[in-house]
Amino acid sequence: MEAPQGGSDRDKSTSSSGSSLVPVFASFPKDFEQASAEEKLILLESLLEGYQEEVDNLTKRAEFGENAFLEIYQKLYEGLGHYAALDSVAGYCPVKITSDIMKDLNDEEKILPELYVDLHKIHTTLSNEQEKHGSEIKKLNTLLDEKEAVLEETKEALRTSQARLVNQLRHEKLKSLVFGKTVSVLLEKKRKLKDEPNQLEEAVLEEIKKALQNSPTAKLVNDMRQEKQKSLVLGRAVPILLEKNRILKDASTQLEVKLLEKTSSLETAEGNIAELTAKVIEKQKLIQKLKEDVLKYARDVETLNLDIESKFKKKYEDEVIKRPYLLYIEIILLKL
User: Fold this and answer.
1) Number of H helices, E strands in the chain
2) Residues contacting 141, CB < 8 A, separation 6+
3) 250-255 — which CB contacts under 8 Å span 24+ positions?
4) What is the domain count for the chain?
5) Is residue 245 a part of any domain in this protein?
6) Cα 192 from Cα 211, distance rounded (Å)
7) Residue 74: inside a domain, yes or no?
8) Residue range(s) defining the domain that contains residue 74
9) pLDDT digit string (tens) for 32-61?
């Protein structure tokens, strides 16, 4: 007689636990709609744990009913009379236990449609969230395509400007080379013009010395007069040559200044090219990072949807397929 009493207490505890889950399941859809993504996972896990607990309770009750049935059958088989066996059956299955079990079954039958509606709402919510994530991913892909198009246009503009600068620099280099050759030729002419008066003066002095060493003849006097005239002409030509030398020197100085300016502009252009190249590399890195972030976000969303769908499917199959079968067995045992 102790086994049935223990079973009755167990049925009472399971019925109380099943009735305590009713307000939790009733408030679940409202809490689920207001919760965030992480809180939704936590609520879904708690709901699945509640389903598992209910299934465990039903399994225990089915096992208890099976044991009671076997024990009753054994007593009927071993008993002396049918009336004693019926008395023992009446002792094992009191009316109170039967009414409690039927009440629990009615409560569970009322809960099942609500649970099915809740599960359908959860499935609809998850589908909507999946569609929302898909639209967000499409928007991100569109934005990424636009950024790539802008970057390609920027790259093309940079390539064009870089090619133009390179051509300009080449032209400037050619001009500077020609200018350098011209400056070197002018400097050489300047040196020759500077050395030519000195050489002429030295030659005249040498001739005068030679003439003084010889006897003064008429021819020598004429030669000296001619040399004097030459020296006078040379003296007049020296200032002219010096003036030309000064003009050439000024021109060479101006050419050197222009060459320095061209060299400075060339260095500035090379610095601008290096800066533009660095900016292009930095933008390429930013676009690559944006692509990686978008792909990672898409993988996380897909993994989350697959996990939720697998958990929901498993618990749904366990509850919808196994539970009616267990209830059917329990009703058969009660009828027996």
Assistant:
1) 6, 0
2) 294
3) 251/186, 252/183, 252/186, 252/187, 252/190, 255/179, 255/182, 255/183, 255/186
4) 1
5) no
6) 28
7) yes
8) 2-144+307-335
9) 666 666 776 777 777 777 767 877 777 787
